[in-house]
From TrEMBL:
Stated name of the protein: Pyrroline-5-carboxylate reductase
Biological process, per Gene Ontology: L-proline biosynthetic process
Family designation: Belongs to the pyrroline-5-carboxylate reductase family.
Source lineage: Bacteria, Pseudomonadati, Pseudomonadota, Betaproteobacteria, Burkholderiales
Cellular localization per UniProt: Cytoplasm
Reactions it catalyzes: L-proline + NAD(+) = (S)-1-pyrroline-5-carboxylate + NADH + 2 H(+); L-proline + NADP(+) = (S)-1-pyrroline-5-carboxylate + NADPH + 2 H(+)
Amino acid sequence: MKIAFIGGGNMATALIAGLANKLTAGANIHVVDPNAEALARLHQQYGVSTASATDAAAGAADVIVLAVKPQNMREVAAQLLPLLDQAKQPLIVSIAAGIRSVDLARWLGGYDAIVRCMPNTPALIGMGITGMAATGGVSEAQRKQADDILSAVGQTVWLDDESKIDAVTAVSGSGPAYVFYFMEAMQQAAAEMGLSAEQGLQLAQATFGGAAQLAARSTEPVQVLRERVTSKGGTTYAAITSMEASGVKAAVVAAIKAAQARGKELGDELGAA
Ligand SMILES: NC(=O)C1=CN([C@@H]2O[C@H](COP(=O)(O)OP(=O)(O)OC[C@H]3O[C@@H](n4cnc5c(N)ncnc54)[C@H](OP(=O)(O)O)[C@@H]3O)[C@@H](O)[C@H]2O)C=CC1
Ligand SMILES: O=C(O)[C@@H]1CCC=N1
């Protein structure tokens, strides 16, 4: 399978790292990005071919992954349209937050073989999760192609309604940043209590990794797992009581809903153009 990436930034790099020489040879991956340094690094690490602007090789791929910022999607669609092999009908996979398939299809002159996805950066180590939705023009074989690509870098979740991608974006697309934010807070607290920066990082990493694995392997709800750590009148009780008093859970729910609203807003703003 020949895969082209338009945009070779953070998320494309995470996907390429998981795919190259695993699902398909690095030589079957073509990356388009204006940054020569980033392209040279990708070529050196994974053996991908590169171009500084969308070219015939990108248009001729079996699957074309659009991995530019939402604000650049319209311009990229305009660059791609004349190069798209209309007879072959390659699959377009968009990973941009907010951008709706209906708008992308319009920018591509009515092209309707689009899968809209929302991956996340743990794809870099094969531990991503991607929400996915297909438009009507996507064949069963193309649906499988999209699933094969995103399954190569982690789990996939197919959605019955594309609008749910904004919720996936808010929970798992942006989610790694929430985890890193919480780890930063744990590290800060560890430092303020006299532990070294290394010890704080080690404790936070092992705690997140261990708790996530425990939750994944348990048949019980996470609430029960949390209660099992929380001895009555003990230390965890003091911490959770403090978090509840500060409204941490409500703040996290509100933050995730703000991310969802921003996704919808991006779709409204950029789709209207
Ligand atoms: N980062 C993440 O965790 C996730 C990101 N996404 C989505 O992925 C997309 C990319 O995000 P991310 O990788 O973080 O962004 P980056 O800015 O890291 O990468 C985008 C790349 O595209 C390049 N670019 C801009 N215009 C063009 C063009 N016309 N042709 C080819 N390349 C171009 C940019 O170059 P330059 O910088 O010079 O403009 C940049 O190198 C976004 O739409 C985002 O919503 C989805 C899930 C998670
Ligand atoms: O912050 C963003 O807009 C992108 C989408 C999900 C993760 N990063």
